[in-house]
Write a structure and sequence with these properties.
cobalamin biosynthesis, 9 helices, 5-stranded parallel β-sheet, Methyltransferase, Cobalt-precorrin-4 Transmethylase, Domain 2, 5-stranded mixed β-sheet, EC 2.1.1.107, Cobalt-precorrin-4 Transmethylase, domain 1, elongated, 287 residues, alpha/beta
């Protein structure tokens, strides 16, 4: 017999001890002597897609440097006492050059602030997060990285398009449609594969080139394509078509960025799986 009160036979407690959240003593403790930078992924737009850690850091920040793609609903979580610095970028129009953003993070941390560098999506997927923490590491500034739901995952889910599916796609490839030198010079032949989904970030301007190059390298003009604008938000728009006609459809709709382009047979599943926009009552369980 166990001496433990109310224990079942065998001495194992019938009620497991509760799991309690523990603050990481290295990265999360209040810092009175030197500042720190948290590189936080804000996800694709819906504030309910934030991680718990992202929410905690945003709501306790002293300074927030944010990109233009961070939704207003997420920015509203920043304390009113915090300084907010917009460092967003548009195509060929940067509020601050990247090297100045990097240095600003270093300077603020050295002044002792709890700094949140808030980025849309995930900081390490076409978010230039690696460049920023390289500078922080070289400067001896303490930092941490909080991943976010990347646009490919969030927008595809809210568009009713599974990026992989046993019957249609066994791999998925993330591609940037906007390169550092303002070109779209990509390994097009490698993209023309069976049972693969292609996801182009920042592909709105380059969409005609993307479609033309894929068809020119052997992909069927009938390959299904979807363009998602302002994904996961109440303003989400999804335009479906094929490589042959998607450009004309997008031009007719006057689509606004941010956008994501999904190419592959999985796009055809959207007609049955569009839980967010097409099913009765918009399919928003608990929304």
């Amino acid at each position: 017999m166990s001496d433990q009160p109310n224990a079942p036979e065998g001495g194992v407690s019938a009620t497991p001890a509760p799991v309690r959240y523990r603050v990481n003593p290295v990265t999360d403790n209040p810092n009175t002597s030197a500042g720190e930078v948290s590189l936080v992924g804000a996800g694709p737009g819906d504030p309910e897609l934030l991680t718990l850690k992202a929410w905690r850091l945003i709501t306790s920040a002293e300074v927030v440097l944010y990109d233009r793609l961070v939704s207003p609903e997420i920015l509203s979580l920043v304390p009113q006492t915090a300084e907010m610095i917009h460092v967003g970028k548009q195509r060929s129009n940067h509020v601050l050059p990247q090297d100045q953003i990097n240095q600003r993070l270093v300077d603020l941390a050295r002044k002792g602030y709890r700094v949140v560098r808030l980025k849309g999506g995930d900081p390490f997927i076409f978010g230039r997060g690696g460049e920023e923490i390289e500078t922080l590491a070289a400067s001896g500034v303490r930092f941490q990285v909080v991943p976010g739901i990347t646009a490919a995952s969030g927008c595809a889910a809210y568009a009713g398009i599974p990026l992989t599916h046993r019957d249609h796609a066994q791999s998925v490839r993330f591609v940037t449609g906007h390169l550092k030198n303002d070109t779209c010079d990509l390994p097009w032949k490698d993209f023309v594969q069976n049972n693969q989904t292609l996801v182009f970030y920042m592909g709105l301007v380059g969409l005609p080139i993307i479609c033309r190059q894929l068809v020119g390298h052997g992909m069927s003009p009938d390959m299904p394509v979807a363009l998602v604008s302002k994904g996961t938000t109440p303003d989400q728009v999804v335009i479906s078509g094929s490589l042959a006609d998607i450009v004309d459809q997008v031009n007719a709709e006057h689509v606004q960025p941010p956008t994501l382009v999904i190419i592959g047979h999985v796009v055809a599943l959207r007609d049955r799986l569009d839980w967010y926009g097409g099913l009765p009552e918009r399919g928003r369980l608990g929304g």
